[in-house]
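Researcher: Structure prediction, please.
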Amino acid sequence: MSRQYDFLIIGSGIMGLAIAREIKKRFPAASLLIIEKEAREALHASGRNSGVLHAGFYYTADSLKAQWTAAGNRLMKEYCQERNIPVNYCGKLVVATDVKEIDQLAELERRGKKNGANVMLVDEARAQAIEPNVRTLRQALYSPDTASVDPVQVCAALKKDLEDQGVEFLFGTKYLGIEKRVASVMGNIIHTNGGDLAAVKVFNCAGLYADRIAHDFGFGRGYTIIPFKGLYLKYTKNKTDVRTNIYPVPNLKNPFLGVHFTKLVNGEIKIGPTAIPAFWRENYAGFSNFHADEFFEICNQEARLFLFNAFGFRELAIEEIKKYNRAYMIQLAQRLVQHIDPRGFTETTAPGIRAQLLDIQRQQLVQDFIVEGDGHSIHVLNAVSPAFTCAFPFSTYVVDKYIVNK
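Model: Predicted structure follows.
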């Protein structure tokens, strides 16, 4: 048995790193270990997202996302400035393609202002002054505070900061289970492929596997993860045809934002992402990371969603699968701009998998952040977009609720 830690975090994505940072801020003398099954930090969703720092205008005011996005945007920019990490202050335009979407732009502006986001409706002329290549009908919603960073660089900086503060990392260390007999008496004994580890408090930040780990501790029983694969096409012709993020008006009934133009921190342009239902949790390409139990479990859930068309899943799945066709995805993006060369999209970026929580009883995708826990274990069950943007205020909330005020 290794020595007992005050805190043990499972997962070294942005959530695990940010929560560790907050714990060390509050309890600098505490012993803290982060275990990660991969060879380094942020190899899954945290390192595969586009790095967009969102402004906070998609979300209803009663949501945690609404509470944290504007503050998270500011805090992440401040952290990057302190660590000399590049930030692309490129902004965002959300455009309308028909009259109905003009009303939806007004709703997004209303939400954004209520959430403390710096957003404004602009006319076509102003939109084209911001982005000469944009195409919109009458109006667009402008978000000057939307920006882009390199998420891998951010996570690497956080890891270095934590190591400098005495936080230990064990990579290649996979969670296998918990010794349930002692979990409520002396803390937690965690079984891993590298041996047993003991900790007073465990934070489950395992992303795609967060639900399974939570179930071991008796939490999250009403939820399961449904993975969705995100693919982007990279525009290699130049970096100048688009100079700001350009998004369509989203369908607010689901958590996906539609095919859009993203300006990366280095100025590169890409379109996407897809939200294609995946068949197992790390279904990135081919049969890599295939697990039969996951395949049958997830296919069963997706078949039920498709059959009963819960939350419009049938139409969503069909529409997203069509985006495997490169020409179709480019066509969707072309509606947002005056001109773009279809031949300029020559590369596909590394796919990402969104760990989207499903409420099993209601058969609905969970659109807000979900955390469950007690004095012994805390489980980040749903940390989907804009979780990267919200990471710092999210971690403050978790530490306040489950450690400081427990």
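Model: The first strand starts at residue 4 and ends at 10.
Researcher: Thanks, that helps.
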